[in-house]
Automatic annotation (TrEMBL):
Keywords: Pyridoxal phosphate
Family: Belongs to the ACC deaminase/D-cysteine desulfhydrase family.
Active site: S66
Cofactors, names only: pyridoxal 5'-phosphate
Species of provenance: Croceimicrobium hydrocarbonivorans
Protein name stated in the entry: Pyridoxal-phosphate dependent enzyme
Amino acid sequence: MELSINTLNSKEEFLLNHHGVDVFLKRDDQIHPEISGNKWRKLKYHLEKFYLGDYRQILSFGGAFSNHLAALAALGKLAEIPTYAMVRGEEAGDSPTLEYCSAQGMEWEAISRKDYSLKENPEFLEALQELRPGLYILPEGGKGVPALKGCAEIIDELEGTYDCIALAAGTGTTAAGLLAHPKAPKIRVYAALKGGSFLKPAIAQYLQEYQSEYGLAPIPRDLLIRKLDLVTDYHFGGFAKINQELVQFMNETYRKYQLKLDPVYTSKLLFGLLKDIEAGHFKAGSRVLVLHSGGLQGIAGMNRRLAKKSEELIAYD
């Protein structure tokens, strides 16, 4: 059964005026209850390639609390496509995300971090395809040229005019997709992980692959430098790391605006953006659009971790 999801549920809405800067939201978290945020955008054209090829199953990679794997599992159930995942590390035994994936019919196995590091090794991937004929291998996080094509469509949907789009990044795929669109404004990327400086060259590489695939002229380097800002100061200790300051910010944001943020990406994004506005990085009168990329399924797993340390929980109910 071919699957199609309407992205028009992702509305633009005003959030607040902060120190003279108007902050708006692009509500990709409302695209679909289970395949939400940027996940459908990344998966959309991978799914098209799956349908066009001689494939029978999708395999991908991710951590035990991966938004990508949760969305892929849901997609597999809805589209009646078998899905399989290789999960990084040893923490897979206590994961609401993987419990959810199993309930959607996804098969998965935990592998060592050493084996997981082979996820882009051609010989390793060829061996997987020999073991499972008809296997479509979907890169970690759903990245790749098809994902950029899906994310570029965000620009076509915009009704308002903005000086900047702010978004969180783990791989940089969504940011690269936005920059692939010729009408994209300035893009401000907030790294969700420690050591995020790799994101700039990664984004440039993704764009090069995209332009090569579709026969497009490359974006001039000076234009890319002007259009892309990378912020690496708000990772809170690393990927999927948070502290009580961030939890309290999430809870306060929900109380004030009824806005749910996730602990890995969008909470760090909005926290960092508001701090940067206060520090004068944006001119008064600027209009900034924050991309809400979903990821709310990860809250249950984060709250388990917080409860074990007897710390304040993310409380949205």
